[in-house]
Amino acid sequence: MSRTSLLNLGLFNRKPKPASVDPPPSDNAVGEKPNSVDDLPGSSRPSQNQTSLLPRHNHNGHRVTPHIHPDGESGRKGIHPMQCLKIIMKSSCRASMAVNVLWPFVPAAIALHFVHGSHHLWTFAISYIAMVPCANLLGFAGQEFARKLPRVAGAVLETCLSSVVEIILFMVLIAKDNGTGEIGHGSKIAVIQAAILGSILTNLLLCLGFCFLVGGMRHKEQKFHPIISEVGSGLILVAAFALMIPSAFFSSLIGTTVAQGEGYTEDQLRRDTLNISHGVAIILIVAFILFMVYNCVSHDNIFNEVWNNDELADRDRDADLERPKVTLAEALLAILIALVFVSLMAVFLVEEIEYVVEHGVPDFFLGLILVPLVEKAAEHITTVDEAYDNQINFALYHCLGPSIQTALFNAPLVVIVGWGLDKPMDLNFEIFMVVLLVLSILVVGNFLRDGSSNYLEGALLVIVYIIIALTAYYYPNPHLTSSNGRGPADE
């Protein structure tokens, strides 16, 4: 870190001492910027032993707006369209900036959707690509907004915003479902279930694997704090246990049911499985609330220390602090615009799913691999860049955090919404996918146990994900065979 940056950092913690016992010159000399609250005209000057309040100027000399973290201060107010657009196009890292070249696909996807004709595959492909820059904008705007908050609250908010794309996709899918609960035209439940587990696997294996791989190639070995790894892996394991309960319940009893008459019928088993799913969904949301309280209230001081250490370990911290930032109003406007575009692309994708499946793309490959990849692409780029810059705790949290939110909130939310819409959305997953999830969590937990990472562990995680993707491509569609009772026997 340069000497200038070190001097600037000193403005946050202490007031400069006078060189002699003589009265110091005026702090508000012409041409000089006040360094702290004490230097503002009309303010009462505390004693040297008194702790100063939050400084009014950040590293770039920008006057800090009240309640805004200095690192996120832009030095501007309101909305400046051209300057905001210029900052957004430069984005937070080179990889994220490169994604912005895909923005022409967004109007192309909108045009294809409203133009009459048989171009369903083209609409799906263009919308699929267009989702990436839209999600990238949402991630960047969320990151800028998070910078203006305290570090713990900002990290949690940034993680939650990254899952908005997934929630929108789930909501569009459940809204478009035909509500019969049976495999056939208009059924989206199998895709939703595959996308839930696929989202968790993509974060745990692909994203975390690339973080360990890229970070390990630059830093050889990276150490992370146990509160991130232990709490994260523990919660994921508990969530996986809860998600597999309805599947285990259904699979253990389906062989003893009777078609009709006296005894435990298959219809009763389906109703009981659905009721169990509703109860598990409510319990998991309560667990998610406890997780948020743990992060933001009871143990926020520990997380804040971890984030501060990661900020100091950032290899390009100086450049990151000096780069222009959007205002609070611009960040909120960018989030709103990104949400509109993400919602449009999600609708376009969902409406073309059946045509894609009919042309040879398996249901489970679509839900387990393709959908999570596009919804997480922009987030993964930023996360891998954090690992490359030696912010391994941030990267680890941004891998485990979204997985926890998917398992404890997003999946239960779509079950409850389906309940409200009278659609039989449950947590009765394919046994094959549940086994994949549990084994993947055990593999990741074993790699996190020693509190360090290297490129070999990252490469192995990516290899496991590729093997899962290959297997998912050859897994038969539900109308051919199924382990959760939605196969040919239902027809």
Sequence-ordered SSE layout with sheet pairings:
Blueprint: H1 3-10, H2 81-90, H3 94-99, H4 105-114, H5 120-147, H6 151-162, H7 164-176, H8 189-219, E1 222-223, H9 226-253, H10 266-298, H11 300-313, H12 317-322, H13 328-358, H14 363-388, H15 392-420, H16 431-448, E2 452-453, H17 455-474
Antiparallel strand pairs: 1-2
Walk me through the structure.
This protein is mainly α and 491 residues long. It has one domain (66-474). It is built from 17 helices and two strands. The protein has helices at 3-10, 81-90, 94-99, 105-114, 120-147, 151-162, 164-176, 189-219, 226-253, 266-298, 300-313, 317-322, 328-358, 363-388, 392-420, 431-448, 455-474; strands spanning 222-223, 452-453. It has a two-stranded antiparallel sheet. Helix 4 packs across helix 5, helix 6 (151-162) crosses helix 15 (392-420) and helix 14 (363-388) runs antiparallel to helix 15 (392-420). It is globular and about 75 Å long. The N and C termini lie far apart (67 Å). Mean pLDDT is 78; it is low at 1-52. Has a role in promoting intracellular calcium ion sequestration via the exchange of calcium ions for hydrogen ions across the vacuolar membrane. Involved also in manganese ion homeostasis via its uptake into the vacuole. One of its GO terms (molecular function) is calcium:proton antiporter activity. Residues 1-77 are annotated as: Disordered. Keywords: Antiport, Calcium, Calcium transport, Ion transport, Membrane, Transmembrane, Transmembrane helix, Transport, Vacuole. It is a multi-pass membrane protein.
